Amino acid sequence: xxxxxxxxxxxxxxxxxxxxxxxxxxxxxxxxxxxxxxxxxxxxxxxxxxxxxxxxxxxxxxxxxxxxxxxxxxxxxxxxxxxxxxxxxxxxxxxxxxxxxxxxxxxxxxxxxxxxxxxxxxxxxxxxxxxxxxxxxxxxxxxxxxxxxxxxxxxxxxxxxxxxxxxxxxxxxxxxxxxxxxxxxxxxxxxxxxxxxxxxxxxxxxxxxxxxxx
Length: 214
Ligand SMILES: [Zn+2]
What we know:
Blueprint: H1 3-7, E1 20-21, H2 30-43, H3 56-67, E2 73-74, E3 77-79, E4 88-99, E5 105-115, E6 119-121, H4 124-134, E7 137-138, H5 140-155, E8 159-168, H6 169-172, E9 183-190, H7 191-194, H8 196-213
Parallel strand pairs: 4-7
Antiparallel strand pairs: 1-2, 3-6, 4-5, 5-8, 8-9
């Protein structure tokens, strides 16, 4: 398909299906965030009249807004005309999120796989889907489940699996100070949960990803 056809809805192939994935969360208030950052930094004892710090509340608020906002995207999928029925797995998708208990970053990678049903998903959409759900304060467990739920709901595949491995700075730079400790979470649906062979294949390939980096 040419790029002109891509951009013109009426020329899209009839089987093309691409819902716009948009945010459903409340609007942020950047101006209030800058004022609140200034109050917090002052309460922490920083002197915001120091010329090095005078613009810090704005930078801090904008950094947090950036980390909690993901771009909307089209979830492009295609009819599975060849009847591809083996596992599709995208490994090592970067994950950058914020823990909702400390508002400190957790970072790592996601491995997302599925067993296609009637439709296959554009490969770049796995990373978009992870980013969409990652850019908000939350727990790693909920992030893992949300990505799996969303794929399940949009694609109706025969199985979905999501594994996330991440390091939480709230555990590595404070508190337990367990630098290097990684947290693994997984969410499996359909055949990837219930069929032992599919489950073993998916988890084995996901594990190969982190073994490679260890
Ligand atoms: Zn935390």
